[in-house]
Write a structure and sequence with these properties.
One of its GO terms (biological process) is chorismate biosynthetic process. InterPro entries: P-loop_NTPase, Shikimate/glucono_kinase, Shikimate_kinase/TSH1. One of its GO terms (molecular function) is shikimate kinase activity. The protein is α/β, with parallel strands linked by helices. It has one domain: Rossmann fold (3-Layer(aba) Sandwich), CATH 3.40.50. It is about 55% helix and about 15% strand. Helix 2 crosses helix 4, helix 3 packs across helix 4 and helix 4 packs parallel to helix 5. The structure holds shikimate-3-phosphate.
């Protein structure tokens, strides 16, 4: 069975949706950031302090490992589309779903303290969305808006 892989900008709901979806479908869930933190015993902030490139290499390692899994629900870091190799790995055994959420909605509840790229403030999200939206569209098999209830988006994914 293929993995279901969620991509999208920070705060779009990937992690929350992945956990609920996994519960509903009785499938294992994996988050690329959590996977890297556990594997390398370093926080995302510590990795970024070494350099962004250091973190991005670990992220690619995670995608490579995940390509070997089966039937998982996978939530990814927002920058996973920055390297097309990541998407190649994730597509090997996965259906890619772009969770697209309006930035104004994200700004209401995004956690900035654990996200190094949001150090300059949550407004940075507008720039990232502008830079990455097309890459998310190009990478995905399905494009879904998260501007409804979480239950509805989960039903849409299952459908
Ligand atoms: C990043 C998103 C984060 C995390 C890292 C970099 C990005 O993941 O991977 O801070 O480049 O957008 P979330 O999208 O889960 O916040």
């Amino acid at each position: 069975m293929k993995n279901i892989v969620l991509i999208g900008i920070m705060g779009c709901g990937k992690t929350t949706i992945a956990k609920l979806l996994a519960d509903k479908l009785q499938r294992p869930v994996i988050d690329t950031d959590e996977y890297i933190v556990e594997k390398y015993q370093q926080t995302i902030q510590e990795m970024f302090e070494v350099s962004e490139e250091y973190f991005r290499n670990k992220e690619t390692e995670a995608c490579k490992d995940i390509a070997r899994l089966d039937g998982h629900i996978v939530s990814t870091g927002g920058g996973v589309v920055l390297n097309s190799l990541n998407i190649d790995y994730l597509k090997q055994n996965g259906i890619i779903i772009y969770i697209d959420r309006p930035i104004d909605n994200i700004l209401i509840d995004v956690e900035t303290s654990t996200r190094p790229l949001l150090k300059e403030g949550p407004q940075k999200l507008f720039d990232l969305k502008k830079q990455r939206h097309q890459s998310y569209l190009d990478a995905c098999d399905v494009h879904l808006m998260n501007n409804d209830t979480i239950e509805n988006i989960i039903d849409k994914i299952i459908e």
